[in-house]
Amino acid sequence: MSYRKMQFWLVAIVGMAVLTGFMSVPGLGQQPKANPGAEKKAGPTLLYFGVAACRNCHTNPDNLKDSPPLLCRCNEVVIWEKEDKHKDAYKNLSGPRGQQMAKLLGIMDVAKERACVACHGIYIPPDKVKELTDPASFKVEEGVSCVACHGPYAEWVTRHGSPLQRDRDAWRGLSRQAKEEQFGMTDLWDPAKRTNKCASCHIGNSEEGKVVTHAMYAAGHPPLPGVEVSTFSDAMPRHWQYLKEKPAAAQKLLEYNPAELEKTKLVVIGGVADLQDAMRLLATQAQAMLKVTPPENRSLDLAQIDCYACHHELKVPSWRQSRGYSGVPGRPQFRQWPLALVKLGMRHAGQEKQIPEFEKKLSVLQEAFNAQPFGKLDEVVRTADDLAKWCAQLETSLGQKNVQYNRAAAISLLRQLCAMSETEVQDYDTARQMAWAFKTIYSELDSKRSNDSEVQAKLKALDNELKLSLPSGQEHQILAELPIALRKISDYDPSKVQHVFQDLAKLLPPK
Question: Which of 36, 53, 80, 105 is 20–30 Å from 271 (CA)?
Fold first, then answer.
């Protein structure tokens, strides 16, 4: 066995020995209980349905050719069934790795364990299945299906797919806000809400019982990488269309603005939402640990800590030495990659003068981790929660009509990404976030530019250094490509990435 492999397995074995089990934890900021005498406001009916409820309309556009205009391709179920990895998510629980993890973690039935099913499918408490599901359509083995993302409520399903044209016309006349608040259809056109939905599993969400722990990693769960929503969506592959891809009649009805670059907007707002979700998770996990008894067992789960603080090559020189160490030796910090695009968002919102305030909030959180190993929990709760609320305000600012996401804005964002990447020594996951953002924003510019081939060559160089291409579709398995990904992390050289961004800056149009 090579030294590197031996090092990996030693870390895994130690992790399994030190950590035992995992838990779902309550969240911060839960709504207060209503007054007993207060009148309960009527809302949409909670109901979990299966793909069969969507199949008739979303398998063949010819089925609805007499109901123009079609707002989607009406073949979404076909793409999801044949290509999307989310369909196989539940199936993976019963595979060899899922069963081995269950054995190591002491789980009797991984297919019924909330901590697993919450992300790999649709978890419903056993005593609520009959009450909350449509028995004719719901199947837990369908994995992460339509209801997981679009909303588990009966009213929007029946209303938006009504066989009556007048009902569909009435539905189309509603605002996105009304569709969500009155009927329960999640507004996935909102970049922040879309990112929050994806991040609930790909980052974590304590309130929903979606938390990957260090014990899970040690037992064999693949590492969760940084997530840039536009990039990950395309790699699903994406079963929906952006507005610019829809027919003219649908664009008119949906008030499409051809000057607004949808992916660029998603990158910028999604980058802030990533930090918001990471801070919420950090705060709720720290809050849960404060309640653990006896007090000496109160320690933040290592999955919330910067992985590279412990998992790094023992070599000189290294990128960690080049970057330097901001904290106290032996006091690892929280994960860094969610910070990657936040300052980009601040500058785009015209809040550059507030960057010192943001950095001060960040330094307070860093001090909480410096105070004692794995963080002084009460301070972590307070400061992480404060940062999450601050991110929500920034998201609102970035969504205002006066904030533009046009071609000029895209070029400005690309130049900022180059400047940030040229001057900062970043860890692997942070560099990936920056590269994914650049690649996505650049894709919305005119590809007929004279030096486009040169830019594409540089993007290919970034892909080679950072493995930007994700294992897309059901035929490309994450576990099969995991050794390649781990090798890229091991061989990561930030200076090479910096040089590529320096070259890209020279190739960008002036405006």
Answer: 80
The span from the CA of 219 to the CA of 102, in Å, is 8
Shortest CA distance to 224 belongs to which of 246, 204, 207, 251? 204
222: which DSSP letter?
P
Preceding amide of 294 cis, omega within 30: yes
Question: What residues contact 266, with CB distance under 8 A and at least 6 apart?
Answer: 191, 194, 195, 229, 230, 440
Q: Are 165 and 194 in contact (CB under 8 A)?
A: no
Do 326 and 416 form a contact (C-beta atoms < 8 A)? Answer: no
Residue pair 374/167 in contact (Cβ under 8 Å)? The answer is: no
N- to C-terminal Cα separation, the chain: 54
pLDDT in tens, 149-165: 999 999 999 899 888 88
CA dihedral 224, 392, 229, 429 (to 10 degrees): -40
Indicate the pTM of the whole model: 0.89
Q: Show Cβ contacts of residue 497 under 8 Å, excluding neighbours closer than 6 positions.
A: 421, 426, 431, 435, 462, 465, 466
CA distance 75 to 60: 5
- pLDDT per position as a tens digit, 182-223: 999 999 999 999 999 999 999 999 999 999 999 999 999 999
